[in-house]
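Posting this for the archive.
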Amino acid sequence: VQLVESGGGVVQPGERLRLSCVASGFPFSDYAMSWYRQAPGKERELVAAISATSMLTDYTKSVKGRFAISRDSAKNTLYLEMSSLKPEDTATYYCAKHGRSFHYSASLDDYSFWGQGTQVTVSS
């Protein structure tokens, strides 16, 4: 299993970024996926989750209306569109796959694998 995140960077407040996560080594279309983040000195936080079929999505309260999670099974890629970025969004962002195929949850504990992360810094 391999998950490779990209798309992070340094942006100003109010700007946008799109993160990508390319998956390999497992049947991507069978698994729910999620994005989570971790800032220095803070606990990991699940940012968004999406079911295998894309029919179900969840977001942590602080990003609702600003972030959008999506997936392209033809490309084995998970996305996170982030807009109206705020300094408090600064963190390393990781993607993760659910531990069980054809299951869905918005609990970080249910996601069993994650990549190396991509840094997002929002600063003026």
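The chain has a mean pLDDT of 95. Residues 47 and 60 are 5 Å apart (CA to CA).
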